[in-house]
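User: C-alpha cells in, sequence out, please.
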C-alpha cells in the first residue's frame, strides 16, 4: 500500500494529489470496515509529497509529518554521499552524519508510536488516548528539526525555491501547529477516541510475557526493604545471593534452551522479566552480561566449554565479565592490542583491559585478543596471570582495570575460529544493544521512586510553586518511555523472528541512554536545590539515575559509535569513523 501510493504520487505529473488518491480508492480506509493501519501507511506516503490527506484525524497528521521528515532525511543522505567538500564527501563528517542519525532515530520511533497508538485504539486499550497524544507530541518535537537538518545538509540549495524541503517544512509546521502550541498537549485532558476496527499489528505483550512478569513480581515480594537497600547501596550492582535465587526461581535466563538450564521462553517474555526487575530497583547489568556471554558460547563455543561453563552460569554459581575495551581504544574494540600467542599447547595472553565491571567477582571473562593473523575471542576462566585494580565511577559504581600477564588459556575456551573474531564480535554487539528493557527499567525505577515521594514533596512551598513544570517533565519522561518501548519492542521482535536490521539495536541504545540521562537530569533541575543534597530518598534516586545515564551513553559502545552505525546502515551514508 505504501509503495503503491508513493509511486503513484511520484509520477503524477500535472494531476492533483486528490485525483491520484481517488483513483487508488484510499478514501475508504477510514470508513467502516477500513484499516486504520493501512490508512496510516497511505498518509505517510502522501506526506512524502507534502500532503496531509486526513487533517481532521490527528494520528494521520502525525503519519503524514513522519513521511515528510523521512523523505527529507533520505534526500539529504543521498546528497551527502555525493557532495564533496574539503576533499571528502560531506557524509563522512560526523557533524553531518550524526545529526542525521539522531533525527532518523526519533522519526522512526515516532512512526512506531503511530502504529502502536493505532493498534491500542483497535484493541480498545486504556492507554490508547495517551499514546495518541504522545505520538503527536513526538512529531511536533522531532519532525521540524529533522527537516531543518536535511535543509542544512544541502546548504544554500536546501533553502532555495528549487528545493522541495522548504515546502515540506512549511507543510509540517502548519499541520502540527494548527491547534496551538503542541507542547501543551502532554498535560492537557486526554482525547476521547472513537472505536476502531481491528488491525494487523499489535504491541501488546502476549500471555506468555504477562505470565513471566507476574512470576517475577511474586519472586520480588520475598525480599525485604533492607535487602533492597543493601543492593541499592552496593557499588557492584550484584548480590550473589540474589543471583542464585533468581536462578533457582528460573528467572535468571528464561530464554535459554532447556538443555542449558533455561525455560525456552520467548525474547519478549525475557524482556518482561528484565523490566520488572529493574522497575523494582534491581539493576540487571551483571545478569545481562552473563546472559550474552552464555549465548555466545551456545553459538560459537566448543562442546567442552559449553559443558563446563553454561551449567555454572545457569545455576547462578558463576558470572562472566567483558574483557573488550582497552586504554588506547575504548569503543574501538577492533583496535585491540592485547596479544595472544599459541605456544603449541595453549594460548598465552598479555595485555590490559579497562572498564571490566565485576571482574573482581567473576569466574570467567570474554577476552578479546590479537594474534598474528587477526582477532580472537575466548571465554576463559580467571586465574593465574590475571590481576586487577579497582576504579570508582561518577555514578558510584565500581569497575576495574585488568591485567593479563602470561595468562594461559586452553584451546577449549576458544570462541569460533582463531583469527576470525569479527563474526563473534558482531554477534556480541548485537546481543549487547538489543536490550532496550535495561534502559526502560532505569526510567521506570526513577519515575516510580519520584512518584512515591511526590505528594510529600509538593507539601513544600518552594516545590509546590514549580508543580506545573514538574508535571510537564514527568509527562515528557512518559513520552520518552513510550517511544523507547516502541523501539525496544521492534528490536526484540525482529531479533527473535530473524527480521532484524543492523540499526535496530543501536537506535535503542542511543535513544535509551540519552533519554535516561536527559529525563532524569531535567527532573533534578525541576527539584533543585533539594535534589542535590541526597537526603530525600526520592530525589536522591533521580539524581543518581541522571549520573548513571551519562555513563550509559559511554558503556557498551559510545553513542558516537551508535550514531555512525545508524548513519551507515539506515541512511547508507559513508563510513564516518
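Assistant: Sequence out:
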Amino acid at each position: 500500500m505504501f509503495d503503491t501510493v508513493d509511486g503513484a504520487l511520484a509520477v503524477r505529473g500535472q494531476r492533483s494529489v486528490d485525483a491520484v488518491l481517488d483513483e487508488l480508492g484510499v478514501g475508504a480506509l477510514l470508513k467502516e470496515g477500513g484499516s486504520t493501519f493501512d490508512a496510516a501507511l497511505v498518509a505517510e506516503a502522501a506526506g512524502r509529497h507534502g500532503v496531509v490527506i486526513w487533517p481532521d484525524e490527528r494520528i494521520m497528521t502525525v503519519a503524514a509529518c513522519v513521511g515528510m521528515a523521512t523523505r527529507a532525511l533520505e534526500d539529504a543522505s543521498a546528497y551527502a554521499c555525493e557532495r564533496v567538500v574539503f576533499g571528502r564527501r560531506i557524509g563522512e563528517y560526523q557533524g553531518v552524519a550524526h545529526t542525521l542519525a539522531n533525527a532518523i532515530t526519533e522519526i522512526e520511533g515516532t512512526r512506531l508510536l503511530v502504529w502502536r497508538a493505532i493498534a491500542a485504539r483497535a484493541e480498545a486499550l486504556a492507554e490508547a488516548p495517551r499514546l495518541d497524544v504522545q505520538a503527536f507530541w513526538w512529531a511536533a518535537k522531532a519532525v521540524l528539526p529533522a527537516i531543518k537538518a536535511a535543509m542544512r545538509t544541502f546548504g544554500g540549495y536546501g533553502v532555495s525555491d528549487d528545493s522541495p524541503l522548504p515546502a515540506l517544512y512549511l507543510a509540517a509546521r502548519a499541520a502540527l501547529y494548527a491547534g496551538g502550541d503542541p507542547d501543551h498537549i502532554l498535560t492537557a485532558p486526554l482525547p476521547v477516541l472513537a472505536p476502531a476496527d481491528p488491525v494487523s499489528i499489535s504491541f501488546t505483550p502476549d500471555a506468555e510475557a504477562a505470565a513471566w512478569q507476574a512470576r517475577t513480581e511474586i519472586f520480588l515480594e520475598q525480599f525485604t526493604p533492607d535487602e533492597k537497600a543493601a543492593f541499592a547501596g552496593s557499588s557492584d550492582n550484584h548480590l550473589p545471593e540474589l543471583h542464585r535465587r533468581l536462578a533457582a526461581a528460573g528467572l535468571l535466563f528464561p530464554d535459554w534452551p532447556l538443555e542449558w538450564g533455561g525455560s525456552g521462553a520467548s525474547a519478549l517474555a525475557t524482556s518482561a522479566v528484565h523490566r520488572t526487575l529493574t522497575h523494582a530497583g534491581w539493576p540487571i547489568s551483571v545478569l545481562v552480561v552473563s546472559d550474552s556471554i552464555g549465548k555466545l558460547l551456545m553459538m560459537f563455543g566448543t562442546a567442552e566449554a559449553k559443558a563446563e561453563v553454561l551449567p555454572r552460569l545457569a545455576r547462578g554459581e558463576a558470572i562472566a565479565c567483558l574483557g573488550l575495551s582497552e586504554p588506547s581504544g575504548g569503543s574501538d574494540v577492533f583496535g585491540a592490542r592485547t596479544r595472544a600467542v599459541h605456544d603449541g599447547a595453549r594460548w598465552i595472553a598479555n595485555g590490559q583491559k579497562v572498564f571490566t565491571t565485576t571482574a573482581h567477582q567473576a569466574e570467567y571473562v570474554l577476552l578479546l585478543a590479537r594474534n598474528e593473523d587477526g582477532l580472537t575471542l575466548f571465554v576463559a576462566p580467571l586465574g593465574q596471570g590475571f590481576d586487577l585494580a579497582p576504579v570508582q565511577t561518577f555514578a558510584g559504581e565500581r569497575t576495574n582495570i585488568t591485567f593479563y600477564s602470561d595468562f594461559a588459556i586452553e584451546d577449549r575456551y576458544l570462541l569460533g575460529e582463531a583469527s576470525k573474531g569479527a563474526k563473534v564480535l558482531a554477534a556480541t554487539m548485537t546481543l549487547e544493544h538489543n536490550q532496550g528493557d535495561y534502559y526502560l527499567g532505569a526510567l521506570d525505577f526513577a519515575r516510580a521512586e519520584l512518584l512515591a515521594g511526590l505528594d510529600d514533596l509538593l507539601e513544600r512551598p518552594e516545590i509546590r510553586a514549580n508543580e506545573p513544570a514538574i508535571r510537564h517533565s514527568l509527562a515528557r519522561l512518559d513520552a520518552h518511555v513510550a517511544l523507547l518501548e516502541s523501539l525496544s519492542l521492534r528490536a526484540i521482535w525482529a531479533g527473535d523472528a530473524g527480521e532484524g536490521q543492523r540499526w535496530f539495536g543501536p537506535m535503542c541504545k542511543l535513544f535509551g541512554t540519552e533519554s535516561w540521562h536527559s529525563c532524569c537530569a531535567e527532573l533534578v533541575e525541576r527539584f533543585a536545590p533539594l535534589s542535590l543534597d541526597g537526603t530525600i530518598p526520592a530525589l536522591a534516586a533521580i539524581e543518581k539515575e541522571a549520573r548513571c545515564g551519562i555513563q550509559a551513553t559511554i558503556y557498551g559502545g559510545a553513542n558516537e559509535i551508535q550514531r555512525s552505525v545508524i548513519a551507515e546502515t539506515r541512511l547508507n551514508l559513508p563510513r564516518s569513523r
